[in-house]
């Protein structure tokens, strides 16, 4: 039995302790904003926040999360999250959209730690998130836009 | 669109997986299952009135467009809705969009004759049809208002979703008149707007699907949920054409949550109460494969066989003008020749292939999937599951990319999903999913191609002959010439007096498919890198040299001139950088690109900037056109730099996931600047045409940097990086 | 393994260990993770194809300096192993696999050797190795340790000879300020050093055991901690 917090609510999981957090979120909790893309931490589509840090849920066994606080795209909040989602919408970053939950979770984390990232900072922070539609140019732009909006 | 409250019912199913609840079987609880997430449009808003097959208007004045084309990022949901809204004179804020049901007649792609998305046709084939659908609905609303208010229809105006009669002071929103209007006679030939009166078409328009893709509520097939649903994965053979010889299921059945295991024609299906149990169960299977019918040649063996074919039997003639052999052997002629090798490529859409199938109490079957050819999927399910096609509903979901992968005649993927469902007994809903490994190793690749090119330059520096042989599987599985093997080469735009293009179409046991831009993926590269080398050899500038070879009326000219102007072609470059240019028409859209490249820290090309000019006729939504050019460039760049699917010794696929089938990452994405040529020509597609020019533009720059032409893709592995 | 061979390997690579002393808590943001305390040593005693020779094997070398050098060279089987070298790169990108290829996805060192905002090491690397189930046979586990991070750049050994590395690990300016005694203890008992012998499914461990490795270091120190020629 693992007890953890998911989007602010106490949850318990008593299935296979090896189950990756991704499948607990998607199958048991039926929160489907967090995506499967590779299963080996190569693509970042499954990115969530664990205790405030980015985490690839596909390679995180639920057993490691006793007492942890998990936030998914459905509940990510705060001024950085709001700025990122607003900027993403304003310039239509998504194409197919499948990777974008993960992109946004990474971008929010970046801005929480570095409120004014350079292009190089953005590239380094986001290099673990694959977008097969290659929306990267707009991702870069939206992160800059979000950073600017946070200045004011 | 598609915003649903995400329900969180009991975790019963998961607990069953842990063996805590009795009755874990394929038979489930014997009740008709409830869909929790992924409902089709008509379930979501039953009050909306249908004005025609494409337009529904609800009492709250929301207008829902039924998109006959799947949305996987290329933008038809927004584009088709824009066309309807324009002629309907709706306010953009009232517009919604949903996937149309599967119907090969009503919702056929007018370019194909069956329902399907592909070939960059979504806007091109729908342009008049969707405008007419909007204009028809508008005429019906006006007729209803005229009847209601007792005024002449001609005096009624519609603007931004408001129907008005100025003289009488009447006005109404759409919703109040929808019930009545839906019963009015539809005009047979509605009047369409003069393009100069367009309010929405031609302007940047935000995508309708963006909000749900930013907050995680967008529903893709993988997100479709049903009560009592099983998750199924299939163990596939490690060689194409192999079949199951024997299975040891012992260990797999011990995995908590695994419900059953069945052998199907495509492999061995594992059914489980949750995804992890399914994956764990599959990993525990021990399978012996029968290789009698398997393709066992390696990529290197295939390349060698293809090279041999060029010198061997006569190829299929795709173009033959003038006297190529005579010109090659003329006096004072300099010749140049090069062989090019293109590897298998996987599409690798972010969302691997998946489908949810469930049977209703009346025996009919609902399928939820990213249906690019919905009618083909429907037929496949009907045939495999033994039901009448009329009793199969395909509910098209948003798809996490495709790049060609989801469009398959005969729907081989859906046949696998249907076999999985059928073997389960069809009592519980089944979600069948592929892992990334299933995707990368699943075949249906862009075929291997080998090109052999020879060119001749006369003493005056004119390119006088071009001889090109192309070897590769026929995507359309033809014995006679397959135009998709030679498109972009046989019809190249350059005026060269003596020109021959031939094709060889060998058979191979590796399933193949179109890949973003189909034949242009290799012909664009071959033509645009070889013409660049010939111009170089003739001492000509890549831009002016190309322009001199293009006819006066060629639409390539404008994009080439534009891109040269954008990049200030010929201006001094930073140290260590070189530029390459390419122009290519595909799907009736013309794109020119210039890439600025240096040698990167890893020894391979570092692409700093790409300028792109596109002529796609009327630009319905410049925002989406720019996005498709940006994305098409990034997608093509990743492929030409990093990607190949290699068959190793014995025919096993070497690559398996994103660690060795690399995708372009943000740190490798150049800055892209796009210009759209203003045009009143009929709109043409933008999903694919941005992709073909990037490879040759980068390769041409790379040749200037290194002195070596790129003769084998991907560049990084050819360069030994 | 001869000295020549070792030196040739050195050109390709650097070496292992000395990781856990690096303070990760130097991160300036308040959200940054603190470096966890090193936990108990992981000492594996399973048979390996390449073994470390026991200290007694060197008893026959009469000259103490030569014996000291020979013992250090024996530890080079571990130091120069890709499993260790991969986290001591000369640049800002960790390496991976026995071929020591750049880390994929492309991550970078960052100010605290723990990645950069948005992509810290612990985005993927947890407190222990994690078995990957049902995916590619190339990646059977994701490596992990409570203190997973990159060796600081001053501890980079890539491209250096075993002799150079030896001098480097004795240099308090380049070894995290350790005395020789602390260095020996680190080699013998540190948990992240010990990861090399327990690298997770699908990864070849470094030779021998951490216990035997620690014994060699103790013997090396006791013989004067002499270094091979650079």
From TrEMBL, chain A:
SUPFAM superfamilies attached to this UniProt entry: 2Fe-2S ferredoxin-like, CO dehydrogenase ISP C-domain like
Domain 2Fe-2S ferredoxin-type: 1-76
Highest taxon listed in the record's lineage: Bacteria
Keyword Oxidoreductase: yes
InterPro entries: 2Fe-2S-bd (IPR002888), 2Fe-2S-bd_dom_sf (IPR036884), 2Fe-2S_ferredoxin-like_sf (IPR036010), 2Fe-2S_ferredoxin-type (IPR001041), 2Fe2S_fd_BS (IPR006058), Beta-grasp_dom_sf (IPR012675), Diverse_Oxidoreductases (IPR051452)
Protein's UniProt keywords contain Signal: no
Keywords in alphabetical order: 2Fe-2S, Iron, Iron-sulfur, Metal-binding, Oxidoreductase
GO molecular function, one term: 2 iron, 2 sulfur cluster binding
Protein name: Isoquinoline 1-oxidoreductase, alpha subunit
Organism field: Fulvimarina manganoxydans
Automatic annotation (TrEMBL), chain B:
Domain Aldehyde oxidase/xanthine dehydrogenase a/b hammerhead as annotated: residue spans: 215-293
Transmembrane domains' residue ranges: none
Record InterPro entries: Ald_Oxase/Xan_DH_a/b, AldOxase/xan_DH_MoCoBD1, AldOxase/xan_DH_MoCoBD2, AldOxase/xan_DH_Mopterin-bd_sf, N-heterocyclic_Hydroxylase, OxRdtase_Mopterin-bd_su_IorB, TAT_signal
Listed Pfam families: MoCoBD_1, MoCoBD_2
PROSITE patterns in the record: TAT
Record GO terms (molecular function): oxidoreductase activity
Protein name: Isoquinoline 1-oxidoreductase, beta subunit
Automatic annotation (TrEMBL), chain C:
UniProt KW keywords: Signal
UniProt keyword annotation of Signal present: yes
Signal peptide: 1-25
Protein name: Isoquinoline 1-oxidoreductase subunit
Organism: Fulvimarina manganoxydans
Taxonomic classification: Bacteria, Pseudomonadati, Pseudomonadota, Alphaproteobacteria, Hyphomicrobiales
């Amino acid at each position: 039995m693992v007890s953890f917090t998911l989007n602010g609510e106490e949850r318990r999981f008593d299935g296979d302790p090896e189950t990756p957090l991704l499948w607990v979120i998607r199958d048991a909790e039926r929160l489907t904003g967090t995506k499967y893309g590779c299963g080996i931490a190569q693509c970042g589509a499954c990115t969530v926040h664990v205790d405030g840090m980015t985490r690839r849920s596909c390679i995180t066994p639920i057993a490691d999360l006793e007492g942890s606080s998990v936030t998914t795209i459905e509940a990510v909040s705060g001024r950085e999250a709001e700025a990122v989602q607003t900027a993403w919408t304003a310039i239509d970053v998504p194409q197919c959209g499948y990777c974008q939950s993960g992109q946004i979770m990474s971008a929010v984390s970046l801005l929480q730690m570095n409120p004014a990232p350079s292009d190089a900072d953005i590239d380094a922070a986001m290099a673990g998130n694959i977008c097969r539609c290659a929306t990267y140019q707009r991702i870069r732009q939206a992160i800059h836009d979000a950073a600017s909006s946070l200045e004011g | 669109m598609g915003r649903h409250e995400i329900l969180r019912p009991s975790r019963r199913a998961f607990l069953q997986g842990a063996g805590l609840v009795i009755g874990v079987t394929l038979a489930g609880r014997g009740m008709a299952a409830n869909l929790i997430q992924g409902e089709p449009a008509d379930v979501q808003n039953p009050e909306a009135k249908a004005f025609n097959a494409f337009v529904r208007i609800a009492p709250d004045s929301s207008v829902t467009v039924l998109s006959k084309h799947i949305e996987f990022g290329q933008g038809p949901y927004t584009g088709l809705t824009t066309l309807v809204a324009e002629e309907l004179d709706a306010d953009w804020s009232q517009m919604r969009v949903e996937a149309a049901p599967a119907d090969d007649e009503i919702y056929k792609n007018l370019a194909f004759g069956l329902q399907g998305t592909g070939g960059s046709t979504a806007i091109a084939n729908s342009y008049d049809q969707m405008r007419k659908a909007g204009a028809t609905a508008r005429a019906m609303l006006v007729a209803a208002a005229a009847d209601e208010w007792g005024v002449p229809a001609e005096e009624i105006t519609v603007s931004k979703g408001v129907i008005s009669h100025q003289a009488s002071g009447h006005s109404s929103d759409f919703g109040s008149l929808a019930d009545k209007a839906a019963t009015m006679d539809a005009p047979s030939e509605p009047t369409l707007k003069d393009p100069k009166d367009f309010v929405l078409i031609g302007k940047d328009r935000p995508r309708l699907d963006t909000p749900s893709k930013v907050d995680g509520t967008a529903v893709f097939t993988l997100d479709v949920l049903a009560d009592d649903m099983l998750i199924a994965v299939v163990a596939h053979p490690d060689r194409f054409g192999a079949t199951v010889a024997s299975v040891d299921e012992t260990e797999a059945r011990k995995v908590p949550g695994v419900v059953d295991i069945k052998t199907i024609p495509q492999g061995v299906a594992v059914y489980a109460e949750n995804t992890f149990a399914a994956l764990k169960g599959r990993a525990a299977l021990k399978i012996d494969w029968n290789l009698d019918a398997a393709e066992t040649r390696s990529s290197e063996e295939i390349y060698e066989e293809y090279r041999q074919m060029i010198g061997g039997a006569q190829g299929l003639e795709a173009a033959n003008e003038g006297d190529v052999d005579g010109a090659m052997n003329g006096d004072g002629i300099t010749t140049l020749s090069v062989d090019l090798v293109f590897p298998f490529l996987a599409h690798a859409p972010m969302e691997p292939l998946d489908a949810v199938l469930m049977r209703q109490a009346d025996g009919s079957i609902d399928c939820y999937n990213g249906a690019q050819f919905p009618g083909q999927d429907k037929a496949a399910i009907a045939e495999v599951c033994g039901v009448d096609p009329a009793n199969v509903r395909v509910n098209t979901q948003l798809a996490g990319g495709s790049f060609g992968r989801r469009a398959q005649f005969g729907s081989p993927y859906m046949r696998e999903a249907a076999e999985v469902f059928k073997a389960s007994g069809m009592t519980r809903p089944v979600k069948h999913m592929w892992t990334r490994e299933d995707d990368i190793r699943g075949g249906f690749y862009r075929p291997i191609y080998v090109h052999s090119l020879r060119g001749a330059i006369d003493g005056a520096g004119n390119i006088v002959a071009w001889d090109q042989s192309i070897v590769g599987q026929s995507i359309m599985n033809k014995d006679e010439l397959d135009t998709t093997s030679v498109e972009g080469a046989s019809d190249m735009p350059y005026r060269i007096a003596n020109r021959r293009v031939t094709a060889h179409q060998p058979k191979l046991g590796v399933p193949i498919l179109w890949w973003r831009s189909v034949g242009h993926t290799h012909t664009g590269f071959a033509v645009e890198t070889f013409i660049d080398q010939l111009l170089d050899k003739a001492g000509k500038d890549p831009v002016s040299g190309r322009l001199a070879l293009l006819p006066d009326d060629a639409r390539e000219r404008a994009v080439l001139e534009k891109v040269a102007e954008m990049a200030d072609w010929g201006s001094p470059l930073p140290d260590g950088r070189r530029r390459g240019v390419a122009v290519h028409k595909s799907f009736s859209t013309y794109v020119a690109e210039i890439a600025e490249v240096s040698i990167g820290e890893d020894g391979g090309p570092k692409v700093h900037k790409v300028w792109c000019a596109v002529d796609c006729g009327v630009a319905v939504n410049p925002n989406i056109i720019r996005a498709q050019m940006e994305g098409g460039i990034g997608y093509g760049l990743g492929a030409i730099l990093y990607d190949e699917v290699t068959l190793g010794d014995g025919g096993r696929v070497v690559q398996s996931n994103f660690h060795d089938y690399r995708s372009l990452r943000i740190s490798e994405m150049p800055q892209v600047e796009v210009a759209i040529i203003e045009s009143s020509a009929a709109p043409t597609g933008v999903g694919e045409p941005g992709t073909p020019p990037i490879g040759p533009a980068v390769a041409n720059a790379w040749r200037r940097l290194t002195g070596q032409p790129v003769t084998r893709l991907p560049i990084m592995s050819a360069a030994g990086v | 393994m001869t000295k020549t061979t070792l030196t040739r390997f050195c050109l390709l690579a650097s070496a292992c260990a000395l990781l856990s002393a690096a303070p990760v808590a130097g991160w300036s943001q308040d959200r940054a993770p603190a470096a966890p305390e090193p936990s108990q040593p992981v000492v594996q005693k399973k048979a390996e194809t390449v073994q470390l020779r026991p200290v007694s094997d060197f008893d026959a070398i009469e000259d103490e300096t030569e014996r000291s050098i020979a013992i250090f060279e024996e530890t080079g089987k571990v130091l120069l192993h890709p499993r260790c070298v991969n986290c001591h790169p000369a640049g800002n990108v960790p390496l991976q696999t026995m071929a020591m290829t750049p880390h994929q996805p492309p991550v970078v060192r960052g100010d605290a050797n723990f990645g950069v905002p948005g992509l810290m090491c612990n985005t993927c690397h947890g407190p222990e190795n994690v078995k990957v189930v049902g995916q590619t046979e190339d990646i059977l586990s994701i490596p992990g340790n409570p203190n997973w991070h990159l060796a600081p750049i001053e501890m980079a050994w890539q491209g250096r000879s075993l002799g150079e590395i030896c001098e480097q690990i004795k240099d308090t300016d380049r070894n995290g300020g350790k005395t020789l005694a602390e260095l020996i203890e680190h080699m013998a008992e540190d948990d992240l050093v010990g990861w090399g012998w327990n690298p997770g499914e699908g990864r070849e461990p470094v030779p021998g055991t951490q216990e035997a490795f620690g014994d060699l270091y103790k013997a090396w120190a006791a013989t004067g901690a002499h270094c091979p020629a650079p």
